[in-house]
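Summary for the steering committee. The consortium agreed at its last meeting that each partner would contribute one worked example illustrating the joint modelling workflow. Our contribution is presented below. We chose a case with several input lines so that the handling of multiple components could be demonstrated. No manual editing was applied between input and output; the record is shown as generated.
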Amino acid sequence: MTFTQKDIISIRDFSKKDILEILKLAEKMEPIARSMEICQVLEGKLLGNLFYEPSTRTRLSFEAAMQRLGGGVIGFAEAGVSSATKGENLTDTVRIVGEYTDALVIRHNMEGTARFVADEVDVPVINAGDGAGQHPTQTLLDLYTMQRILGKIDDLHVALVGDLKYGRTVHSLAYALGMFGVKMSFISPVELRMPREVLHDLSNSGIYVNETEDINEVLDYVDVLYVTRIQKERFPDPAEYAKIKGAYLINSKLLQGSKAIVMHPLPRVDEISHDVDNSPYGKYFQQAFYGVPVRMAILKKLIK
Amino acid sequence: MTFTQKDIISIRDFSKKDILEILKLAEKMEPIARSMEICQVLEGKLLGNLFYEPSTRTRLSFEAAMQRLGGGVIGFAEAGVSSATKGENLTDTVRIVGEYTDALVIRHNMEGTARFVADEVDVPVINAGDGAGQHPTQTLLDLYTMQRILGKIDDLHVALVGDLKYGRTVHSLAYALGMFGVKMSFISPVELRMPREVLHDLSNSGIYVNETEDINEVLDYVDVLYVTRIQKERFPDPAEYAKIKGAYLINSKLLQGSKAIVMHPLPRVDEISHDVDNSPYGKYFQQAFYGVPVRMAILKKLIK
Amino acid sequence: MTFTQKDIISIRDFSKKDILEILKLAEKMEPIARSMEICQVLEGKLLGNLFYEPSTRTRLSFEAAMQRLGGGVIGFAEAGVSSATKGENLTDTVRIVGEYTDALVIRHNMEGTARFVADEVDVPVINAGDGAGQHPTQTLLDLYTMQRILGKIDDLHVALVGDLKYGRTVHSLAYALGMFGVKMSFISPVELRMPREVLHDLSNSGIYVNETEDINEVLDYVDVLYVTRIQKERFPDPAEYAKIKGAYLINSKLLQGSKAIVMHPLPRVDEISHDVDNSPYGKYFQQAFYGVPVRMAILKKLIK
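What follows is the complete predicted structure of the assembly.
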C-alpha cells in the first residue's frame, strides 16, 4: 500500500501508483455499490457532508458511497441551513462538524477552501470542488470510467471538448491523463482554449497534444470524447455563442462510424443530444454511477 | 404472489388481489414500524427520495419506512438544492440518482412525471404525487386504515367530503373503493362535485353511489367520513367560500351519535375542528402512521 | 436509576442526581462518539429532528448522536421544507412525525413550544431551543465539559461573560451551576446585566455571586470563563457598542497567567480571538464535541 494521504485535495497530490491503488479498490467496491453484496466496513463511522454550494451528483454519490459501506452521514446541502446565516465563519463550522464525524467532504465556491480546511481539522478532508480550483474525485472517476469501459488508460487517445479555458474538470483530467502517457486532443473555440501553461507542462513531459477548433478532425481516431459545457456567459455576443454552440453539438449523426465513447462530468445542458443517451456511444450515466465505487474506495482508504 | 409491478405509478395499475397482497404484507410490517421488532431485510439498499415539491408526511414516511427495514436514503426535499438550479433537466437527474440507488420515490408538480421517469430508469419508481395526477400510496394507506380500524373494506359505506372536483386523492380512492364494491356518498358544494366520468364509471360497474350537498343526510349510516380540504382559491366570492366552509366543518357536535370514523389525507387547515382529534371519531393521525407500514410493504415488494 | 423524565424540556426539571446520572452515562458514550467502539443499542429506532430554525451544531450533533447508537434520523432543517408552507399547523406536523418515530427533537423560535409539543405527542420530546426559553441539552453539555476537563463541577468558580441579560444559555447555566454550589462571577456591561431575579434566586439559595463590568478583576481566580456573544443590535449607539466590544474581547494576551479555561456555546462572532483556539485556554471545540456523548446519553435514556 503506497497511498498515505490524510486528505484528498488535488489530483496533483497523487502519484500514478496512488491513482491505480484507488482504481483497484474501486473495482472491489462495485458489487457493493450495486447492492449485490452487503458490506458494513464503515459501521459506526460518520461522514460530514458540507456543501456550501448545491450539487446533486457529488453530494448524493458521497452519501450513497458512505451508506453502502455501512456508515452514516450528517451535513447540509446548501449554506442557508448552516450557521453561516448567523455569521459563523467557515473555520468554526468545519472544526465543529469535524468533532462530530470521522471525515469531511467539502464543496465551496472559493478556491483553496479545502486545503485550508484540511489544515484546521484532525479528520480527513475530501475536496468536492472549490470554485475554479480542484475536484479530484471527479478526475478519479473519469479515469476509472475509461479503465472499466475501455480496459485501460495507458495508450488511449482522449479528446477534451468544449470550454477548456474555465472548466476545472478538464485541467485536472489533462494533468492526470498525462501521468498515464495518454495522447490528447484539445477541441475548443479559440476563445476557450486550454491555458498555455497546461499545454506546455504536458509537452515538456513528452505527452502528445494537438489542438483544433474542429471536432471532425479527431472523430476517426480518438477513443474518448470528453465533453464539457460551453457557457453562454463567456460570450459577449449571443450570435457568436449560438454559432459556437452548434459547432460543438454532439449527436448520433456526428458520431456515426467513430469508435469513441462520449463522457461528460454532468450536468449537461444541451451540448450532447439526447439521441446519444442510449446509444453505444453515450457513457455519461455509467460514468456517474462509477462515482459511487470510486468514492467508496476513497472513504475506505481515509477513514480509520 | 400475484404482485409483479416494477413501478407504483397509479392505483389503476392494481388489481384487487394486488392491493390485498400489499395490505397483508403491511400488517406484518406494523410491529417493525412501531419499533417493537427489528428488521434488516433492506440492509445495504438505498432509496432515492426526489421531492421536487415539499411534503412532510410523504417524504418522511418513506424515509421512515426505508430505515425501519434497515435501508438508507439519499435525495432532496425541494428542487432548490438539486442541480435543477443549474438548468439540469429532470431526466438526467433521475437517471443519475437511479444509478446510485435501488429504487426512486418521486414527487413533482407535473402530471405524468412518474410514469415518464419509470420508463427512463431501470430501478423501480414510486409515484409520491404528480400534480393533479396520481398518488397511489396514499390510496393504499387509506384502504389499509379502513381495514385495520373497521376490520374490512368490502361492504363499507364511505362518504367522501369536501372538494371532490380537484382533489386527486378522492378520485383515486373512489376508483379503488369501487374495486371492493364499497357504497359511496359524495358530499360537496355543487361547484366542487365529483367529475361526471368518475360517477359514470362507478355506476357502470354496479357500485352504489349517491350525491348530496348536505353532510347531515349521511351521518346516520356511513362508516367513514373521508374529509378533504376546500381551498379558498376555488371561489371568486369570499362570502360564498365562508358560507361553504361553515357548512362542511366537521366537529364533535356534528358527529354525535354517528358511527363514522373521520379520515383525512392531511394536511388539514380548519375543515376538521381540533375537538375531533382525540375523540373516538378522529383517526387521521393513526391513518398517517399507517403510511409507514404500507410504504414498507411497497419497498419490500419492489426492491430486489 | 432516578431519571424518570419522559421529556427533556427545561434544566429546571432536573435534580442534581438526574444531571449526574446523565453525565455518568455520557462518559460511557464517549468512546462510541469517537467511533473507537461500535454500538447498535438504538438499532431500528428513529429520531424525528424538527428544526423550525436553522442550527448547525445542535441539529448535526443530535443526528450524530442517534447514528452513533445505530439509530436513524428523519426530519427537516428549516421550516421551509416542511408542510408549514401549506399552512399546516405545528401540532399536526409534530403529531404526525411523532407517529413515524421513537422520539422528537424540536427547535422553534417561540418560547414554550417544546412543552406544548410534549403534551401533544406520546413519544419523548427534547427541547433543542425555544426562542428566549430553554435549551437544556446545551446546559448539560456545558456541565459535562467542566467535569471532564476540570475533573469536577462542585467547588468551581465560573465567570459568565458578555450578554447576561438576553442570553438564554447563561440563565439556564447559572441555575444549574447553583445546584452544584458553584461560585459565580457575572461580567457584563451594565446594559446587559444578569436579570435581578436570577441573582436573588441564587443568593437566596446561599450561592456566592459577584457582579462586575471588568473582566480583569476575576482573571486571577476563576476556573472557567464562559463567554457569550454581545449583539450589536442591543446598542442604539454604534460607538458605545464598539467600546464595549473591545472591553470584552478575549485573547491570549488577556488570558496570560490565568488558570481559566474558555468556553463558549458557539457560534461566536469575534468575541474570542482566534489566537485562543489552539491555546491551552480554548476549550470550545472540545465543548462542542461533548454535545455528542451528552445527547447520546439523553437519547439512550428516553428511547425505549
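Chain B has a mean pLDDT of 93. The first helix of chain B runs from residue 16 to 33.
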